[in-house]
Amino acid sequence: xxxxxxxxxxxxxxxxxxxxxxxxxxxxxxxxxxxxxxxxxxxxxxxxxxxxxxxxxxxxxxxxxxxxxxxxxxxxxxxxxxxxxxxxxxxxxxxxxxxxxxxxxxxxxxxxxxxxxxxxxxxxxxxxxxxxxxxxxxxxxxxxxxxxxxxxxxxxxxxxxxxxxxxxxxxxxxxxxxxxxxxxxxxxxxxxxxxxxxx
Length: 199
What we know:
Layout: E1 2-8, H1 13-25, E2 31-36, H2 42-46, H3 49-59, E3 65-68, E4 72-74, E5 87-92, E6 105-113, H4 117-131, H5 142-151, E7 158-160, H6 170-176, E8 183-185, H7 189-197
Parallel strand pairs: 1-2, 1-3, 5-7
Antiparallel strand pairs: 3-6, 4-8, 5-6
Helix pairs in contact: 3-4, 4-5
């Protein structure tokens, strides 16, 4: 399993990604950080996520890729489940921000991509959808676009990862109580969103 993330150049996420890579190294995990030009706003930067994973998939066609946002920190060794999967995704239940009938919100801060044809096809479709001029006009963020694409693929083998793999401080505690996270997200967007959008 290889850890992959990205940061937009000239933004505070450059500092965040270094800490993420160090946290992976602490568990003997290889981590790769892709530097991408800042597109001018936080929302547009979020749409670069599938591009990051696609880059690493081209370089590492046989590896399982564990994508982590720049503000993620690995707290315990992540152990993949046994079984046959295409992707591993975390869904926040009963989210007031969800645009889907079931009330779930896909959170892409942590996601796992196995080297399967179905996963590669999904990744290609996600990358394309996030790069079109109209991206964000119906669903505003990368995760909303991905959630829609996954729902269109009932045969996709999805590992619904436990909340400990995408632990978001206050939000996760409100839903699940106190638990020991495997991967902790500092939700840096709360601190940097306005700053990054102003650049």
